[in-house]
Every structure is written in C-alpha cells, then in structure tokens.
Specification:
The complex is a heterodimer of chains A (287) and B (326).
Chain A (H helix, E strand, L loop, with lengths): L1 H28 L6 H19 L3 H22 L9 H23 L15 E4 L2 E4 H23 L1 H11 L1 H6 L4 H27 L5 H16 L5 H20 L6 H13 L13
Antiparallel strand pairs in A: 1-2
Chain B lengths: L6 H9 L3 H16 L4 H23 L8 H18 L3 H20 L7 H21 L1 H4 L13 E3 L2 E3 L6 H22 L2 H11 L1 H6 L4 H27 L9 H14 L6 H19 L4 H15 L1 H4 L2 H5 L4
Antiparallel strand pairs in B: 1-2
Classes of the chains: A mainly alpha (287), B mainly alpha (326).
Chain lengths: 287, 326
C-alpha cells in the first residue's frame, strides 16, 4: 500500500516536471501545445543515445538533456511558435499535431521504432527494504530531483525579479508590455526553460515510462490532464494534479488492472465537469 | 441583397443550389460507372467524406474544437459489426441501429461539452474517445480486444432493385456508401439552411450575443452534437459493414486528427469541405504512401504546419475563388 503510494508520488512528480512547461505555455500564451511531449522525447533520446552509444554517465546526461531540449525550444519558439499565439485554437491544435507527427516519424526514421532502454547506474538500482514499504532507489532519486526542481521553480517564480515579470505577463501580457517589460523575451526564456524541463523529465522517465517514437502521442493526454485539471494560473495546481494523477494511475493499474487507464480519464472528465477552469484555479481567473 | 427583401427570402437565396454543388455531386455519382476498378478507394473516400461532414457540423457550424470525434465513428463501427454478428446480418437495419446508438452517445456527450473553455472541451472530447478505446480494448469477450472484431459477415442489401450481395471489388459497397452520403448530405444541407442552421452560426461567432438575442445556446449545441454523432456513427457503420471488421483503430487519436485535417483541407463551414478534403487527402495518401509507406505521417505533419502558416482560410476555400462578389 505504502509502496504504491510511493510509486504514485514518484510517477506524479515525474509527470509534473514533464508537464510544467506546458502549464506555462497554456497559461502564459493561451496556446494549446499538443507537441509538448516532443520536447520530452527529445530529452529522452539525447540521454539514451549519449549513454548507449557514447558511454556518457547517467548523471551527466541529465543536464545535457535539459540543455538540448531547452535549445530546441529556444530555436523553435521565435521561428514557429510565436506566430501561433494570436491564432485560433483550431490552428494551434492543427499546428502542434503536425509537429507531433513530424517528431514521431522523424525519430522513427533516425533512431528506429523499437523501445529504447537505459541502464541506470548501480547505486540507483534496487530497493531499500524497510519493513512496511519497499522504496525503489531510482524512484526516490526521481522524487528528490523533482522536489528540488519544484522548490527552485517556486522560488524563482515568487522571489526573483524574473518571476514577478513572468507573473505579470501571465496575468496580462498587454499591460505588462505597456509597463516596459520585454514580453517576447520573457516568453522565449520561459518556453525554453519549460521545454528543457520536459527534456529533463523525458530523460528521467526513460526508465519508468519507456521511450519509443510514439512517446509524445502516448503521454500527450496525461500532460494535458495535469494542466487542465490543475489549472494554469499557479504552479501548485499542476503539482497537486500531477500527484493525484500519478497516484490514481498507479493505484488504479494495481487494484483494477482490467480497467486500466479508464479510471484516470473518467476522473478527469468528472473533475472538468465540476470545475471547468481546473481544480485549483484561482477564483476569477477564467480565460 | 437589398434591404427590401424579407428574412425568408434571404434564407431562400442562400439555400439555392449552386452549379458547383451539383457538379460535385454529379462527379461523385459518375465515379461509380466511370471508375469501376477504383471502387475500394472511392468507398473509403465516401466514408471519410461522411465522417468529415459530421465534424463540419460540430466545428464549422457550431464552432466546437473536438479532438475526439473518432469516438462516434468507432462506436458506430462496433455497433454495426456487433449487430451483424449477434442479431442479424441485414446491413440497413444495422446502419439504423448504429446511427441510433451513436446518437444516444452523442446526446450524452453533448452534456459534457456545454461548459468550459476550448481547452476543457478539447480534453473532454479526447477523454471520451480514450475511454471508449480502453473499453473496447478491455471488453475482449465482446469486441475482440486488440485483435478487433473480425469475421463480420454482411447479408445482402435489400433494395427496390432486388437484393444485392456485397462483392469483392466493392462496387455494391461504393454504391451503398454513396447513397448514404447523398442522403445525409441533403439532410444536413436542409438543416444548415434552416433558421436552426443560421442560429448555429450565430452562436459559433459569438455565444454571448447569441444568448442575449434569445437563442437557447445549450439546446442548440445539444441538438447539433447529437446529429453530428449520429452521422459519424453512420460513417463508422459503413466502414465496418463494407470492410467486414471493426477495430480499435476506429477510436484512435490518429483518426480524430485525420478527420480534422481532412475537413481543414477542404475548408470548414460550407458543407462540401469534407468531401473535397476527403478526395484530396485520400489521393495524397495514396501517392505519398506508395512512395514512402512508413513515413507518410511526416509529410502529413509538415503539410499541417505549412497549412497553418500559409493560413487555412486562404488556400482551403475554393468557394472564395469562384464566388462572384456581391
């Protein structure tokens, strides 16, 4: 039972790191980016290729995965994404589905369609056997890393100058621009960091979630659930939603394997019916 | 249009048959005798066109962005296949049964899309399709699970011309699909040129204003979503009946995205986008996948991105090329 809870938390933390970039894109630019998973996949593949082909150690791969996805995001944002912000949601959906299809087949073409595995270092394998729960070392590692990232994010958002600029731009880009903030630059930086975090999440999750070219499609709905259920105005909303989703998914698959992902989807629809703006949205922040 | 004409006259003028509408329908009908060797491909086109027509009602007329329209397609396909397998093999009754079930599902789902923003609706439609996918996957005693429902044997088609067996070349199937497509098209054409159709466009353009001039927004969304679901169910039923099987693929996200693309290629909001889009899409698909079967999706994606960049309004509305300016 506690093991399940623990695994669920690890899964949820991972989902949070993967999806937090999407929450920002949605909240900040009001842009429905279905291609967010593609950045996560990029990070995952960077890790897999570096480790398996070049023998780079696992820990060194994580920052590289972050960097690669962040650079990818920074390159694509001004080239493609920026022109999409003002467009109709249908255009955004079409555009990002197009990106997903290209990413999926592109990776398939370059790397091949088989599932990729990574070998985590020996000190992360195995479990701590405590009498009431088994705690996987790798999952513990994920929780620690993700918790540290969450705290750092929270600190940046609430304590730094950039954080307050970002919050201002989220609340009202036009007024923020009018006050002399370079909103485009804030968007660019945020998009890059969000993509980088997704890449890092992809690298961390390659072991747990599995990695193959259909990754962006398989997990797209999970990322979207985190954002729509959690609301996009805070960072704690998506965090709680991700934890809820992680625990519900792990527990659901363990206790009623027949129903599979059924529970998660049903839960999502019910929550969205009751709270269309998300479970943890601030009052009056309807967009 | 001058200000002296009454509203009824304006409506009637808009509902007049245009020459290109008749031309398109004539071309479709003529494809049956003229291209007997391509009946299978044409049948797929007709089914896809019907499916896209259903999405057009929801997206083009009512303005709901749906990422889970395959839910109704797959549901119709399974309903028709199961009906043929468990109850009786008559295709027409199966079609009616599938349409009725899909309409019921649509009516239930329409309650879910009344609230919330575009994102919420996107998630809910996607979620419904995913739930049905999971259900069809897990209920393998009924649906065959991941293998799909195979070995659906259809009985002969009872027509005024006598009973017709489905043949391997797919000519009967094509005729069947075309007749259904025409029937639905006429029905929908009548619907969108009615005051009801105009009220849909009003609430698509501005829901708040539509509500404040006294339109019941929710009732209209409920109605149009139910009708669209029934049509998508018909498309699914046709695909199951003429193809002889129903599979999980019917519920797949891929299918929802595909029909969205088809509709967007043809253009939304003037009924024929689905048909034109289906023709263009299937021909492109045939061409490209003959050249690079595995990576067809890449070109599809590239096409989507370019389409959005160039502006779907500009290149995908053949109507605007031909129409004389008033």
């Amino acid at each position: 039972m506690l093991t399940l809870l623990f695994d669920g938390i690890a899964y949820g933390m991972l989902l949070f790191v993967l999806a937090v970039g999407l929450a920002v894109t949605l909240g900040l630019m009001n842009f429905i980016n279905l291609a967010h998973g593609a950045f996560a996949m990029a990070g995952g593949y960077v890790t897999v290729l570096l480790m398996n082909r070049l023998g780079v150690p696992f820990l060194a791969c994580l920052p590289l995965a972050f960097l690669f996805s962040a650079l990818l995001g920074a390159a694509l944002e001004p080239l493609l994404y920026r022109r999409m912000y003002a467009k109709h949601h249908l255009d955004q959906v079409l555009f990002s589905i197009g990106i997903v299809f290209m990413a999926v087949t592109g990776v398939d073409y370059v790397v091949g369609s088989m599932q990729q595995n990574i070998q985590v270092p020996a000190w992360l394998q195995g479990r701590f056997a405590i009498e009431w729960a088994g705690i996987g070392k790798y999952r513990l590692f994920i929780i620690v890393v993700c918790a540290a990232l969450t705290l750092a994010l929270q600190w940046v958002l609430s304590r730094t100058r950039f954080g307050s600029q970002l919050r201002a731009a989220v609340d009202d880009p036009r007024v923020a621009g009018g006050l002399g903030l370079d909103v485009n630059r804030i968007f660019l930086l945020t998009f890059a960091v969000g993509s980088g975090l997704a890449g890092l999440g992809g690298a961390l999750g390659a072991e747990i979630l599995g990695l193959d070219p259909s990754f962006p499609l398989k997990f797209m709905i999970y990322f979207l659930i985190v954002c729509s259920v959690g609301g996009t105005t805070t960072i704690t909303g998506p965090l709680l939603a991700a934890l809820l989703l992680g625990i519900a998914d792990v527990a659901g698959k363990y206790y009623v394997p027949k129903l599979g992902a059924f529970i998660v989807y049903t839960l999502m629809i019910v929550i969205l019916m009751l709270r269309p703006q998300g479970l943890f949205a601030r009052a009056g922040s309807a967009k | 249009m001058n200000f002296g004409t009454g509203a009824a006259e304006v409506l009637r003028a808009d509902a007049r048959w245009r020459w290109w509408e008749l031309g398109l329908l004539a071309a479709l009908a003529a494809s049956w005798p003229l291209l007997p060797t391509h009946a299978l491909l044409l049948n797929e086109i007709a089914i896809l066109a019907l499916f896209a027509l259903s999405l057009d009602l929801v997206l083009g007329y009512a303005g709901i962005v749906s990422l889970g329209h395959a839910a109704f397609f797959g549901f119709g396909a399974y309903a028709a296949a199961l009906f043929a397998k468990l109850v009786m093999p008559d295709p027409l009754l199966g079609l009616v049964f599938a349409i009725a079930l899909a309409a019921l599902l649509g009516a239930a789902c329409s309650l879910l899309i009344l609230r919330g923003s575009d994102l919420t609706r996107l998630m809910v439609t996607l979620g419904v399709a995913s739930i049905l996918y999971e259900l069809a996957n897990k209920l393998d005693w009924l649906t065959g699970g991941a293998d799909g429902l195979q070995g659906v044997v259809m009985g002969p088609l009872i027509t005024p011309l006598g009973s017709l067996e489905f043949d391997l070349a797919g000519r009967v199937a094509l005729a069947y699909s075309l007749v259904v497509l025409f029937a639905v098209l006429l029905l929908v054409r009548r619907l969108v040129h009615s005051p009801f159709g105009f009220s849909l466009q009003a609430l698509r353009d501005n829901r708040l204003r539509a509500a404040s001039i006294g339109l019941s927004v929710n009732a209209r969304l409920f109605a149009v979503y139910t009708v669209a679901a029934a049509i998508a169910g018909a498309a699914g039923a046709l695909s199951a009946q003429t193809g002889g099987f129903a599979s999980l693929d019917g519920f797949d996200f891929h299918r929802s995205a595909e029909v969205l693309l088809v509709l967007v290629i043809g253009g939304t909001g003037y009924l024929y986008g689905g048909i034109i889009g289906a023709i263009v899409f299937k021909l492109l698909h045939d061409l490209i996948s003959a050249w690079t079967p595995q990576y067809w999706n890449f070109w599809l994606g590239l096409f989507l991105v370019v389409l959005v960049f160039v502006g779907r309004e500009r290149i995908t509305r053949p109507r605007t090329w031909f129409r004389t300016r008033r």
